[in-house]
Amino acid sequence: MKFSFQRFPVLRKSTFALAALALCQSAFAVQPFTVRDIRVEGIQRTEAGTVFSYLPLRVGDVFNDEKSTAAIKALYATGFFKDVRIEVEGDVLVVLLDERPAIAGVDFTGMKEFEKDTLTKALKDIGVAESRIFDKASVDRAEQELKRQYLSRGLYGVKITTTITPLERNRVDISFIVDEGEAARIRQINFIGNKSFKDSELRDQISLSTPGLMTWYSKADQYSKQKLTADIESLRSFYLNRGYLEMNIESTQVSISPDKKDIYITINLAEGEKYNVAGVNFEGEMFGRESELRALMRLKAGDVFSGEKLTESTKAISDRLGTFGYAFANVNANPDINREKKEVTFTVQVDPGKRVYVRRINIGGNTKTRDEVIRREFRQFESSWYDGNKIKASRDRVDRLGYFKEVNIETPEVPGTPDQVDVNLSVVERPTGNFLIGAGYSQADKLTLSGSVQQANFAGSGKTVGIDINTSKANRTVSFSQTDPYWTDDGVIRSYDVYLRTTNPNTSSVGNYKIKTAGGKISFGVPFSEVDTVFFGIGYERNRVETDESSPLVYQNYTATFGNVYIDEFGFRHGLARVNSVPLTAAWQRDSRDSALTPSIGRYQRANLELDFVGNVKYWRATYQHQYYMPLPRKMTLAMNGEIDYGRGLRGKPYPVFKNFYAGGIGSVRGYETSTLGPRDVNGDAIGGAARIFGNLELQFPFPGSGTDRSLRWFAFVDAGNVFAEREKIRLQDLRASAGLGLSWISPFGPLKLSYGKPLNAKPTDRLQRFQFQIGSGF
Q1: Which residues contact 150 (CB under 8 A, 6 or more apart)?
Q2: What fold characterizes domain 185-270?
């Protein structure tokens, strides 16, 4: 502290330790006076108003030693200043400040292991970010945190150099220069104490591994403390699920070679004894539903103990109580171990707690989708009793919309109110619109333009709008469609489609024929349960079929039956048929899948009947599809799909050729060229048929390194199916089969599938296509 005496004493306080400050105060005390004015000097970026807001002094206050000390402490505590002084000029207080530099920018050089945006956000949390006040201690902590993150990834040779560059206007640039070095690889994983299971069996239960074929991508051979912790839990679960109730991981040792390139992991464990379940007893308040709750217990007397089954059972009991409004039910299974008999008896304590109701439903993360689009899918209502099943159903219904990459739901307790909860639903939106445009030139078609626009969540309204245009000579299309999933407040679905299609192959392999179809259709869907919807619809089509002598025989026969045959001036035979159809449709759909895009559990079924007895053509066609998804360990999913389609002509008329079914390719039987299976004409060209049957079996598993992301998956598949002509007997021995591998990806352009299939029983006349891909929907 420095004093000078002019007309009045002048007090100056310089920055040093508080202990020295106290000693100086005892030697140099300021004479108290009333502050007439306060002046702030030395600030460049900080507003004077900000300084006054922290200063515990106002004009008119009495200034003394205590208030001087309090003012200096308050201004230092802001962290904005590296030097604070106070001078007294008469009855005017002068606050002299030396500001800390501001951070102009934070940059990273040489970094490959981490995303820069992720690190920028992490450093911001500890105070190192653009526009923040520079603090050397915070920068040092940031450097140490970066090193810690690299060490957790197995990069033990990392070197980080921090450079601080002063800039004009009291600013600094911070640059972290990183030399990552080479990642240390796991060379050996050893287990000590395992007697019941081999080392190889235990290694299969953990994610860490020694270098292998795919570890360059998955990085499973790079040590991580977090991964090791998770692997220890996996080992513990493995033993608990096989009866080893007292299994314990006694220690883990991680050692690194002197050159910091090789890591050796040793896991010491004590297996303990294998226990069987002697019995399960229930205690607590069960509202007379003990038999109902006991039925949810998967462990029975005589079973080998399984920690997984016990956890699933207690959760099922807790969830069941949640359907009655007991959101915080506490269900604990207490073991009574008999080591002599190697048995364990469980006493399930049921404490339902207080019955609660939902105060508020909050929705977040939807930047485009309207709140009402999400809220109308909720089956849990505000101010109603909490129902766990309804909350889960609400979450699944929102996920089945297909508008979101992630759908998460939480039910936090309302602070200070033990009988209320809020339901917080958060979503991460995904692109729901597809815009495709293409152009091409060929000698046959000349200039070809094609384009389509489909928006599954148009303007966030939940409606689906689509426009499709194709100018190819072989397949010309103009169509417009719209679907409103909530045409009425009760959830009645309305969809309509207007189209004009022209098919004119005009090739030597297929022959020449022309089908021109103009029409439209409208349908309504009426939900009658949470997962069931019934559809009714009507359409109208005007079909014009033209043939000549090069046309497939089936088309020539059709124009001869339903139209006229004439000879042109050159002596060539032509056929022309104009037929109208008025198809009536009725359908039933059941969808209990947990997700429309990446399902892992549940079923999807759809049955459809199309009937036309009004137009020139008389026919009926029926289709039935059934999908089943079953979750498997290690985040795998078993997916099964089956479909059977059948059509017949009515009143003695043949089934219309333009309603034929086709098979082959993704969506039916992979490994065979698209739409080439089934009956053929005299030229050997596939013409489809009036009946179709096919089935698909897929084993889906996560892509290495993708974590919990289900939008990218590998799969192995087996397909079988074929197409049959009208009134032809369907024989299973005629089905074509294939097997192979594939990749599915929910890309920004729509669902993408790649597959490589090997036909298992192809005939010489079959057209094969082992590698196939598809952008769009399909199993």
Answers
A1: 113, 158, 160, 180
A2: Ubiquitin-like (UB roll) (3.10.20)
